[in-house]
Every structure is written in structure tokens, then in C-alpha cells.
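Help: read this over?
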Amino acid sequence: MRFYLTLLFIVFFSNQTQAAAEISIGTLFDYMPSNKTTYLKKIMNMGDSTAFIKISINEIKYDENGQPYEVPEQEAENRTLIASPSRLIIPAKGVQATRLLFLEKKDAERYFRVRFVPVQPKHNDGFDEQQIEQNSKEVSAGIQLLTGYGAFLFIAPENPQYSTEIAEDSNSAEIKNSGNTTIILDFFEVCNKKTNECSTATKYHILPGSKKHLVKNSNENYRFQLIEGDKTQSIVIGN
């Protein structure tokens, strides 16, 4: 079952340890609400070298068995989601932003992986030529550790419907998403009833039509925040 989504990270290593660009994309899960068709994503360069960033976008779809797969990146004229700009030049300790624009009707929820990858820029590669010249020495000596990160973008449908069903018996519980929009189980913990000690909090996304099964233990309960769009409520299972 599609209980939750795991981000993929792209990591490139070199054998040098000189000054390097080090980017941060903030949150790894992003959400475009039902009433919006754009999303602003800020990228920070925490390193001490200029970062040249390429942005790539792949749609995530699910096969008949509910397994996710990436659709190859489309040609510019056929893309459903675009980044503007798709190339960023971020100075050391600086911040830049790109705007993600969804170009089709929002009649169903859609999912995309957006990757931000530092590169050693080349001429005619979409970057500002003057900026490349100005930073050529820094780039050749500086960007040695290249680390790219992928963010997962949820695009809610225009008319979201939330319908979360929680069914319990003495041995188990099931959380089912019968709506048309992903629900979130945030700060999900397994806690000891006697000591009140809890596991490390995590986050689960339950896609439309999917469910999460929980096995009950007499000494433990499950605690989490159920998020349905703008609505959040605290849930405890296994009291």
C-alpha cells in the first residue's frame, strides 16, 4: 500500500575538500493548495562558494499495483509543471527563489519530485554568461562537493474532499483516506503508556484510496496530528 512517500537524494562526491557550495532547500515536502497554481521555493547557499543550481522536475505516478514511478522529464513545451527560473546562481551565504507554476487543470491531485542540483556551469548551459566569467576562478577551485536535494511537491485538486476513516478493534487499527486529497499524520509517535516515553516523531502521507494499518500493543499507544488541508486535530489510538 502507498502508506507514505520517501524522498530520494542525489549525492555527488569528489576527492577534494576545498571551499564548496552547500545548499539548503528548507522543507523536503511542499504543498500547493487547492486555490493556487504557483508555489515559491527558496534555496539557500550555506557554503562559502557561489552555487550554480539546475532544477529538474519529474512527475510521480502510480502503477496498477500502487507502486510509484517517475515520468521522464518532458520537453519544455509539454511540461505540466515548470520552474521559473530553472537556473539559479546563489552567492555564498545568499538566497534565491524559483517559482513553480502548474499549467493544467487541477481536477485531481498530482505529485512531482523537484531536484535542485549544484553543477559546474558550462557556457551555453542556461546560466548568465557574465556571471560564469566573474565566478570562473571560484567555481573551478570551489565547487568540489556537489550535493543535490529533491523536494516532493503535492498539488491539491481544485475541489479537495477530505474523508478520513479510523477503524479499531482490540488488536489493530486502520486509518483510511477515502477522500481525493492526501492526508498527513504528523508528529507520529509510539508511546509507552506507563513511562510516557515515545519514539522519534515522524511524518506519514496517506494518499487518496490508501490506508495505514497499526498493530495494537497493550503497553503502547499511537499519537499524531491528523492534518486535512487547513484542519488539524490530535489523535490517540490505543488508550
Notes: The first strand starts at residue 10 and ends at 12. Residues 76 and 82 are 8 Å apart (CA to CA). Residues 3-17, 137-146 have pLDDT under 50 and may be disordered.
